[in-house]
FadR/GntR family transcriptional regulator (Streptomyces coeruleofuscus), 234 residues
Amino acid sequence: MTDALRPMAKQRLYEQVLERLRQYVAEGGLRAGDRLPPERDLAQRLGVSRASVKQAIVVLEVQGLVEARHGGGTYLVRDSLDTEPVERMVERRRRLPDVLEAREALETKLAELAAERRSEEDLDAMRSALAHMAEEIEAGGHGVEGDRLFHAAVTAAAHSGLLAEFMRSITEQIAESRTESLRQPGRPSRSLSQHQAILDAIAAQQPRQAATAMRRHVRTVAKVRLLDWEPEES
């Protein structure tokens, strides 16, 4: 039987607030660094409770679109509020812990093996990846491509066909966790430093230190606002 006539989902009030805020930013020509009106003012102008406005602001924070400064207001991080559908966020929040658990198990072992088996060519690939990531960050980006290249280089340096296949099987989920992590405030530069520590251990052929450095890094990746977010039902 078709489910085309299933009951329609009722849009949450804070989702309506999100849409109004998106329109406000677009029509007002606001840009990154501009401040949104205080929550109290937004609630009055939109005719909703402050709780609904606060829920909407939290969703924007989780998506890395705004920065709420303690006692200092809420500021745009980008030039628009093109928000991701809340249901997609809920689904990503559901699967992210499993992805991070798999990453820790696989990538810790890969770093250990890389320290034992890496070639000079492997090390060059890792250094090139970190240089690329540094350039991305310097240009104001999050360093996503450099991050991808570095972890791919570590995987290659382990010279384990089966583990590499396991990594390829969760490529999309890893990319999702990477993006989620690197849009956390201050995270790109911290990740770059952690990558350097991993590379140093691999270059020095110290398997235990390489595994420890990778485990520390992946656990940092796991610290994202999305996992602290409690989706509201109404």
In short: Strands lie at 66-69, 73-76. The mean pLDDT is 91. The CA atoms of residues 10 and 234 lie 9 Å apart. The first helix runs from residue 13 to 28.
